[in-house]
Amino acid sequence: MRDHRSIRCTYYLESEIEPQRAAALLAGEQSSGTFLPVPGESARISERHAARIVDVQECGWSRPSLPSRTEPEKVRAAVATIDFPMENVGTDLATLQTAIGGNLFELGDLFACRLQSIELPDDFVDAHRGPAFGIAGTRRLISDVSGAMIGTIVKPNVGLSADEFRGVVRELASASIDVIKDDELMTDPRYLPLETRVAIATEEIDRAEQVTGHRTMYAFNITGDLAGLRRRHDRVVAAGGRCVMLNIPIMGLPALAWLRSFAEVPIHGHRAGLASTMRSTGLGIDYTVWQKLARLAGADHLHVSGLGSKFYERDDEVSANVASLLAPLGATVPALPVLSSGQNVTTPGPTYAAVRSTDVLMLAGGGVAAHPDGPSAGVHSLRQAWSAAVDGVPLADAAARSAAQGDLHLSHAIDLFGGQ
What we know:
The protein is about 40% helix and about 20% strand. The protein has helices at about 20-30, 45-50, 85-90, 95-100, 120-125, 135-140, 160-175, 195-210, 230-240, 250, 255-260, 285-295, 315-325, 350-355, 365-370, 375-390, 395-405, 410-415, and strands at about 5-15, 50-60, 75-85, 110-120, 150-155, 180, 215-220, 245, 265-270, 285, 300-305, 335-340, 360-365.
């Protein structure tokens, strides 16, 4: 029977040694075990603090996924489920990461080690507040927008002057776009400081709202030195900004949790750098594990890649990423899945077919800015594509119907990006 105050982790492992021994090596390294007996390693300590192997399923032989001190031709693959005592971790996210993803990745006997899933005790989940705004709160701040939310990234992502930046934001806000965000590279450079971007963007968004009636959200990137994090957040809020952005893998989950403790606006969670610990199937952690920790730490929005994107994840993996963010996690509200990279009018159809939800934010760079009729037409055509997807109407048919009414924006987008 499972101890409900244990943290259950499932790992994919490869080793020359017998899989049960490999699992025991991992469990010992990450709890009370040592490679040699030491004074004080009592039965009491072992009973209360040792990680326990729940199950080991052998998967046959394979070539080693990772380098090590030896170079065997073949290794034994297995999936091991291990329970870690919550008593070792408490409710601290940094300690949890250390326990489930610390030295185990360095063990020379393991030629693969990847954390595939995690089940957290209710006590651990309940100790964290999770997103303050989530999907519903984000919609409320964007004029109670319904359906899939449409957003974009300021492009060029770096190098714009203040006047050039103003022109970009003015055009996008006037297009009644839902979200504009800084690029992950844009933090607080001297040529266009955060303070200047905040002043310009909030002014232009306010001006556009007076005309369109639509309130655009701007996600200001406040990634940077930890000591200045609160100061940068407060600067955004004082100017009337409605969202801040953090590069979570770069800053770390504890920084996210600290930001959540005082944030007055939604936190847009970028995942820049995450693939360094996620991309290899033989190393690191799965996105579905990471997102649980990021949600508990307080991210309101989380990037998931995108279907048909330029990034490495397959469409089925992206769909699983979306589903994981929308799945229940104790009493915390779901985080908003953010689709990005290569998104245009051809992607809402397959995206909706895969995820069956419009609780997403689709960030389209070229899909908005490169539209031949301008950014406003880009936003409009993306909304049309999403409506067609939800209604089960082929994209070409939706374009033909709109064209018959004199609206060629969707047709022109299809001409540019390619039809389905």
